[in-house]
Every structure is written in structure tokens, then in C-alpha cells.
Design a protein that fits this description.
By secondary structure, the chain is α+β, with helices and mostly antiparallel strands. The protein has a domain of 272 residues: Beta-galactosidase, Chain A, domain 5 (Distorted Sandwich). It is built from 13 helices and 37 strands. Helix 6 links the parallel strand 24 and strand 25. It is globular. 51% of the residues are buried.
Length: 669
């Protein structure tokens, strides 16, 4: 009997070693069969690749981790089990760039086990869609791995070609507020943030990002040895550890969009589909809106956030904004600088903020009672100065304080290089904090506009009270940045990079282009382009940022008054990243369409067909476009407003001036 047991044990060992050392390939196809992801165990090390239309996009790339105490978790594996499944469901968004989203994929689950030592378990899940793929790691609950630390995630994206990519640096600059650069992958030369969008030589696009970032560090990328292999770099804690974890534990999804054109790229919903379904049972209180606010005037130093003779958040001033909002189809008014904590140096000293104590000249009851009578809501403001501990200690009371006065939307801010003086915004620490804010706000029925955030990864599907986020070099840079403002090409890059991560609170709508306090800066657009941006850059909360007096009597302001913020369909009609964009969107609540066309520093003539319109309807197109003499440097305010009949057969010629644009309201008759 002992001899039989010994022989059985030897045979089992041989089988296990053979399973480890032989190359095991497993493939999962997309529903249409045009894309597949392949997993392979090469001598016990896990790899994957992605192929589209029989062309390799991502060559075999490493998977795995280094854990605490230089403990590798990327080799000596055997495949314990594999399973495959399919899923096809259409779900409805409470708000978005379209109403319905189809979630259709094939899934492969690969369960791995170490053949030596502690025989720990690691699971990989691949989901392949018709427009790309996502994969994640799962650490199952197991006796030999409970609490652990990730010191490095070894995931790589080995691009098969050296292609051009649009990127911003990950650690130089703050809050993702950088200008995008274009370079070959091998020449990136730095660690960059995602989404990273790559252009192929045959006019297709690859975007690498992540989905469902929860209790983990944000993913950055760098070219390994200046090659076309992009290596994951997780934002670390101040300790140097990347992630603290306890089994069972799942990482975010690593996502790869594979799009045939820019329209397919913008309309990919892989990231949203890889997040959990909505956890808010009743979303009726979540309302997209346009807003004006007490904010831009501080950038112009017309008023102050802190107490002074020029304090902006005073009762009289706020009520004048409420009057303007009520008269001009704005649902909300943002008020910054209303609470104690702004006096003196506050950036990096957020412990002084009190979120339930208004300044003496801000009568919140009088203001909110007046707003209610006018049919307008206030958007509250919580600047934390980076002190998350102070904010979390007050957060429930702060939300309750707002709810008492009928305020159900809050703009949060984290203006500090580090959170609580030591942690990076996109570290696991920051991710945990932002998630706590969103969940606490949801429980209080509060909508959030998050500034200085971690890069969005689709959390708005799970918690649609997360309306919009900054995480971009926005309009405020046109008021005070040392380099003069955002160059004209900036907003022609964003729809295909930052905007792919989620809604953007860019805060455009500036009609006066030079700040007399910082005359070296200016808004580097024409007036028509400011209008077009409301269609091109998506957010369910959209601000008209300028001083109210700059809108009064200006006929161009009509477009901002009528443009919606919630859509049923989105189409990229034309575009080239960094050059120009033409976006068409259909209003969710009518049959009207809107077009936004913008260009970089080069003037151009565009011909736009209206084939997206209902063939059985007639329309009137109201056009707000650059005049023939418009130019962003010398004559930015020159605009032509005209009307014409339109239908599905219409072809419209549009002239876009240097730094210019055009906005079109296509009203159904």
C-alpha cells in the first residue's frame, strides 16, 4: 500500500510540473469574433495578448505582482481550472451621453495555483467586447494569503508597433492639470497617466485605462527601457507600498479600447460596463443642470474667497446670481467662499475649514428661501485644502446642514500638493477617501462635482450622484497661468483622452477673454468656440463661468441658455486629435440636435452632412459661427448668428477661424 501511495505521489508531482512547464494557451473571443484575448502560461509565468481582426495589437505581456518582502507572485503557477461564460444586457443610464448601454461580452476565468511553497491562489478574469477587452486579478480567500502588501504590479501592455500616443505626465504637475503631448510610445520618456490614447498608422485607435478603481492605487504607465512595452506603475503610499490588501480582494479592471474610428472610441462603454450596477435605488433626485456661480470673479480678483470688503459670497451678491439664473434657464448657482476657513493661507491647511459655519455676511436661510421661490438650487462648496481627516470628521454633519436648506449638490475641492501633508491624491489612500465621500453623499442624496480628483474610472455607473469631476487643465488656467493659458489645440485633444475617463467640469463659457490682473493670460478661443465647447466637452453639470455683466445683452449667450446637458445620442461626425472635432448630440428630452465644431490654431473649412437627423422631420438650424474676419488673437469676438431650414439631406459648410468654432442648434419643427 505504501508503495502504491508513493508511486501515486510521484505521478501527481510529474503531472503538476508538466502542467507548469508546458505552454498552455487559452483564448476567449468577443461576441462577434473580431477580437480575442489569449492567456498563456509560459514555464509557470502568466502572460496575455490581444488580437483584433487577426492582427496582434498587444503582444504577449507579463502579468503578476511583487508582494511584501520581495515576494514574487508571478511564477511557478499551474492552471487549476478555467471557465467561460457569456453576458448580454442593456441597461439605462439616469444621465449620460446616451440613454441605453449594451453590455455584451464573453468571459474567461483562469484559476492559478503555485506548485511550490505555499501554493497560493490567483485568479484572472478576462472580458472581451466587440470594441476591446478588460481584465482583472482576484485574490481568493485562502489560508496561505490573508493580509498582504503589493509593492509592484507587473502588468504590461506590449504594443506590437511603435505608434504615436497622447499623454500627460503622472507625477509632474498636479491633479492631471497638464497639457497633452504627442510622441511615439518609445519616446514618452516619463511615467504618464491614463487614459492613454494611441493612434495606429491605418487610422484606428487604442486607449488604455482602468475601470472600477476601488480600494487600490491609480494606474500609471511608463515605457519599459524606452521600448513599446508599457509597464504599470501604481501611485504609492508615503511608505512606498503601493496597495494594502486582505483576501478576498479584486483589483480594478485594466481596459483596452480598440476603435475603428473616433466615433467608436468616444462611444465605447467598456469602462462603464466594467463597473458595478447602480446601488442607488431611487435616482429621481439626481438632476443634470447648468449653473452660474461666484467663482470666476475671484480669479479676476474682483472679489475674494475669504472675509474682506470684497468678499464674494455675500447675501446680496448671491441673490443677484439667483435672479440671473432664474431669468436665463440656469437651474443652479455655485457659491464658493461662504464658510469659515478661507482667511489667510488655506491651501494645505484645510484643518481650519468649518463646513457648517457660514461667514456673517452669508445668510444661508434667506438665500435658500429666495432661491426656492425662484425655482433655483444652490450648489454648495466644500474646499478641504487637502485635509481629508478634517473633512471626514465633519462630512455627515456638513451634508445634513446643506440638506436642511434644500441644497443637494456639492462641489468638493482638494487644493494641496498632498492629502493630509503626505499622501498623493491618486494613491490608495486618496481613492479610499474619494469613494467614502461619494457613498456618504449618496446616503444623504447629495450630488458631487469633484475637483482635484483621482482620474475617473466609471464609478458614476454605480453611484450616479458622482456627476462630474475636474482632473483636467480647465478654463481657470486662462485667467492666471504663467504660460498664457490653454493653447487652441488643448480642447481638440481632450475628447479623445481625458473625456474618455468620464464627465469633465471644464467651466467654459467665458465671454471676456483678457484678465486685467494677469494681462499675460487670455482665453485662446473665439467667442463661437466657447459656445461649441458645450457640445464637444461632456458634463451633466455645465457652468457658464463668466461675470454676469459679460452675458447681458450679448446675442451669443442665447446658445448657452438653450443648450441641454443630458443627451440621448452622441456622434463624432469628424475629427483629428489635436486638430479639430465635430460633435453632434441629441437632446434627451426633445427631438432637437446640437452640433459643436472646434479647431486648433489653424483655420479650416468643414462640410457637415445632417444624415443623423430623422428623415421624416423638418428642422430649423440656428448657427453661431466665426465671422470671416474672426481670429482668436486679434478679433475673437466677431461672430455671425443666422438661421436656415434643415433636414436629413442638408450639407452645411462651416468656416472655423484660428482658435475658433461653430455651434448649431437644430430645432425640430
Amino acid at each position: 500500500m505504501k508503495k502504491i501511495k508513493l508511486i501515486t505521489s510521484i505521478l501527481l508531482t510529474i503531472i503538476i510540473v508538466t502542467a507548469c512547464n508546458s505552454n498552455k494557451e487559452i483564448i476567449v473571443f468577443s461576441p462577434s469574433g473580431n477580437i480575442f484575448a489569449e492567456f498563456e502560461l509560459k514555464n509557470g509565468k502568466p502572460y496575455y495578448r490581444i488580437v483584433k481582426n487577426n492582427k496582434q495589437v498587444i503582444d504577449f505581456s507579463r502579468l503578476g505582482f511583487d508582494l511584501n518582502e520581495k515576494n514574487s507572485f508571478n511564477e511557478n503557477f499551474m492552471i487549476k481550472n478555467t471557465t467561460e461564460s457569456s453576458f448580454d444586457q442593456t441597461w439605462e443610464q439616469p444621465w449620460g451621453e446616451e440613454i441605453f448601454v449594451r453590455n455584451h461580452y464573453n468571459e474567461l476565468t483562469v484559476e492559478l495555483q503555485e506548485i511550490e511553497g505555499k501554493q497560493r491562489l490567483l485568479t484572472l478574469i478576462f472580458r472581451v467586447f466587440d470594441d476591446g477587452a478588460g481584465f482583472r486579478y482576484v485574490f481568493p480567500e485562502q489560508p496561505n494569503l490573508t493580509d498582504f502588501e503589493i509593492t509592484d504590479e507587473l502588468t504590461e501592455f506590449s504594443l506590437s508597433e511603435d505608434l504615436h500616443a497622447w499623454h500627460i505626465t503622472a507625477y509632474k504637475g498636479e491633479y492631471y492639470e497638464n497639457l497633452y503631448k504627442k510622441s511615439l510610445i518609445s519616446k514618452i520618456g516619463d511615467t504618464v497617466s491614463t487614459p492613454l490614447t494611441i493612434e495606429t498608422d491605418d487610422g484606428q485607435y487604442i486607449t488604455i485605462h482602468e475601470a472600477n478603481l476601488a480600494d487600490y492605487a491609480a494606474m500609471n504607465l511608463y515605457p519599459k527601457h524606452n521600448s513599446t512595452t508599457l509597464k504599470v506603475d501604481l501611485t504609492p503610499w508615503s511608505t512606498g507600498i503601493k496597495v494594502y490588501a486582505r483576501t478576498p480582494f479584486a483589483t480594478p479592471w485594466r481596459t483596452v479600447i480598440l476603435a475603428n474610428n473616433l466615433n467608436a472610441l468616444v462611444n465605447s462603454r467598456i469602462m462603464l460596463n466594467l463597473n458595478e450596477p447602480c446601488k442607488i435605488e431611487n435616482t429621481d433626485w439626481i438632476k443634470p443642470s447648468k449653473y452660474v456661480g461666484i467663482w470666476w470673479e475671484m480669479h479676476l480678483e474682483k472679489s475674494t474667497w475669504g472675509q474682506s470688503e470684497k468678499h464674494g459670497a455675500n447675501t446680496k451678491n448671491v441673490m443677484s446670481f439667483i435672479d440671473f439664473a432664474a431669468a436665463n434657464n440656469f437651474q443652479s448657482v455655485l457659491v464658493e467662499g461662504w464658510n469659515y476657513g478661507w482667511d489667510g493661507k488655506w491651501s494645505g491647511h484645510g484643518e481650519q475649514f468649518i463646513f457648517t459655519k457660514p461667514y456673517p455676511d452669508f445668510d444661508i436661510k434667506k438665500i435658500t428661501d429666495y432661491a426656492t421661490k425662484k425655482g433655483v438650487k444652490l450648489i454648495g462648496h466644500h474646499e478641504t485644502g487637502g485635509s481629508t481627516v478634517n473633512y471626514e470628521n465633519q462630512m455627515k454633519d456638513a451634508f445634513a446642514f446643506y440638506k436642511k436648506y434644500g441644497i443637494d449638490a456639492v462641489k468638493t475641492g482638494y487644493v494641496a500638493k498632498l492629502l493630509d501633508g503626505k499622501e498623493l491624491h491618486s494613491s490608495q489612500y486618496g481613492v479610499r477617501h474619494y469613494r467614502k465621500v461619494i457613498e456618504t453623499a449618496a446616503n444623504s442624496q447629495i450630488m458631487i462635482d469633484n475637483h482635484e480628483p483621482v482620474m475617473p474610472t466609471g464609478l458614476q455607473r454605480t453611484y450616479p450622484n458622482l456627476m462630474t469631476q475636474e482632473g483636467v487643465r480647465g478654463q481657470e488656467y486662462d485667467a492666471w497661468s504663467r504660460d498664457g493659458g490653454n493653447p487652441p489645440e488643448h480642447t481638440t485633444v481632450l475628447p479623445f483622452t481625458r473625456c474618455l475617463a468620464g464627465p469633465v467640469d471644464f467651466t467654459f463659457g467665458t465671454f471676456s477673454f483678457i484678465n486685467p490682473v494677469y494681462p499675460q493670460t487670455r482665453v485662446q478661443t473665439t467667442l463661437a468656440k466657447q459656445l461649441a465647447l458645450y457640445v464637444v466637452i461632456y458634463s451633466p453639470l455645465q457652468m457658464a463661468s463668466d461675470l454676469l455683466e459679460n452675458y447681458e445683452g450679448n446675442p451669443a449667450f442665447e446658445f448657452i441658455r438653450i443648450v441641454p446637458v443630458d443627451w440621448s445620442e452622441t456622434i463624432i461626425k469628424e475629427g483629428k486629435i489635436g486638430d479639430y472635432v465635430v460633435t453632434a448630440r441629441k437632446d434627451k428630452h426633445s427631438d432637437d440636435w446640437f452640433i459643436g465644431a472646434i479647431t486648433d490654431e489653424n483655420e479650416r473649412n468643414l462640410r457637415i452632412d445632417f444624415s443623423f437627423l430623422d428623415k421624416d422631420k423638418k428642422y430649423t438650424a440656428k448657427i453661431f459661427k466665426d465671422a470671416s474676419d474672426a481670429e482668436w488673437k486679434t478679433n475673437p469676438y466677431s461672430i455671425v448668428i443666422e438661421e436656415q431650414e434643415a433636414d436629413a439631406n442638408t450639407i452645411m459648410d462651416l468656416y472655423l477661424a484660428s482658435g475658433g468654432g461653430a455651434a448649431v442648434w437644430i430645432k425640430a419643427e
